Fold Glycosyltransferase.
Amino acid sequence: MNIHHLNYSDLSGGAARAAYRIHHALLKHGLRSRLCVDHANSNEPSVCGPLGTWRKTLAALRPRVGALATGILRTGNPVLHSPAILPSRWPDRINSGDADVVHLHWICGEMLSIPDLARIRKPIVWTLHDMWAFCGAEHYTEDCRWREGYRRGNRPPHESGFDLNRWTWRRKRTHWRRPLHIATPSRWLADCVRESALMHGWPVTVVPNPIDIDRWRPLDQAMARSLLGLPADTPLVLFGSMDGGRDPRKGFDLLLDALAHLHEKMEKLHLVVFGQPAPDRPPEPGFPVHYIGHLHDDISLCLLYNAADVLVIPSRQDNLPNTGVESLACGTPVVAFDTCGLPDIVEHKRTGYLARAFDTEDLAEGISWVLVDRERHRMLRTHARAAAVSRFSEKVIIPRYIDWYKQAQEEQGRHGAA
């Protein structure tokens, strides 16, 4: 079986890292796999980018179109938008190539236009990394238009001007006539697909993002802290996000509130933040803060998880963040809110702690609960590693993808015969 993946980038961002890992795991399992991207950074022969100056120029322009349209049209909606307007030549390259199955990842208007997707004639499996596929132009939303359909009468009051989301959603409904095989890393996102006005009735299955458990593994904590220059004798609470504190979905403000509550429970504690450099005006949570910045290689990230005592994911909305799976694989417990895809990572009081959604006092209680008892913490670390091996390892996940590829091929065969 020959799989061609499409993702905007090969290494930049959570969806890219997930697609890259699936691609390499397939190669290790003896399948042929190729990762097609608009921005390639890995310089690997199995990763291919756009050919020619004009196609590279279009690839560079696409990410700016959504922001430009949102600004010019004054929609009043600040979230990331991808109206998926500019066409590409990827469908032609895919259709004329030797792929048996096309595996889409984060294309979301940055790589293909909406009509482009309908032009692909190969069997398709699409792993969703956010809500864009069944929404309008937005990647995440808290309103219910994706359930009801984007009508004139149900537009949120905070939006104004041209209804970019309704226009984008109607284009998807017009062009996407053939149901695709959808995979979601979390149960929450699969339920969203089933409840959506656009994709309800489409085949969907839950397949978590895989991880190489031999690469991501427990290491000596003292060594990890020494190599990273972190203090050796104090509890370390880890928070990571590519957008740091700028993305309200990631809930850094909620973590700061929880740390304020922790003053009543713990005297010694340091916060470690990765994914962003120190801001010009850093917050003062009352505990020392270490800003690690962007870590681009797996070895440094693995050391960081091992240096920490607990990873906190205070997200308001999240799918199946790679940070949580990576942390478990390194044997580091996770504290998160009981919302969206986070319960798929954290087993309450076994691999970490699930706090009541957006209750910062309970989030503080969870951090304290993980840290204060050494024997309990040791057991949490053992269970975290075991959960990663049994639920997220490549040998568990890749056969599930192979089965989904085969089902997509069979459905394509029935569709062609009909």
